[in-house]
Amino acid sequence: MTLGMVSACAPKGGIVSERPTFYVERLSTSYSGSPAVALSRWASGRQIFLLDNTYRLTKTITLKNGPTGGGDLAFDPRGDLYDADSGGPNPTGQYLLIFAPPYDTPTTRIFFPHHVADSIAIDGKTGVFAVLANAAEMSDDPEVVFFPAGSTKPCAVVVLANGTVLGGGASFDAESDLFFTQYVGPNQNLVSISGECRPGAPITYTPPIPGVDGGPQFNTFDQLVLNKGFYDVVYTYAHPAHGSLGKLLKTTTLNKAHGSYVAMVALSSNGKALFAIPYFQKGAYVYKYPSGGNFTKEIALPAGVSSIAVNPPLTP
Hints:
By secondary structure, the chain is mostly beta strands. Helix content is 0%, strand content 44%.
């Protein structure tokens, strides 16, 4: 294997600062088939579970080192699996891990000095990916780091205000704008950055959203989908515009799974179902979207789940 150093390049616009060096480690690659769903383990262990399109467990990836607990997962259009390996419930991990089939070990690891690699989002149209990197120390500033498709060299770094805490999860919409949340007291603000490798200034939407659990997502109609805490409710909004949240279009109630409240963590590839995890319980469940109701499929696993990614990813 080789170990190299990559420095970020600052695009035009003036909102991006020069960044400390990234450390990129490339490992050997080999290729085979791809799973349909990946799930990261919550709170203990270092496992990622891979399932086929019948939700049968076909492989368990066990990482040899790094933080315990889950990381944030996403598939790119080629079927490579990305893991923002922050760990949980106390995130400390500073690596983005990239797995190519057959997903035995990471084929690439990108280190984020002075930051925690909290969330990963991939644009299914352009392949550009973004890492939400919270500050590891109070003296550091949180950052949103953009990479071109298939590259380990950042094309843009958006530095946010010191003291800002980014929420978990992020998504690109149909216009290739990145959406995420940041904490404001007990609530969260929805924020977007347009332009990908030539980013504009972040836009904050009002009003703040109480009780958001997990990052913003977009369905096949480019509508905003949010889960609000472990209260079995998923909200679908018209697309945000002009600094304001869109109109609330649909409220989806997810009935308890074996007596446990559940929280949505991902939409299916075709947008007709969603994946939800039970509160402090093992496994995951599949529900119809947007109708909700009772779960249609139980995914039995030996551990709790923190993040779910689908392959191919849903493209708004």
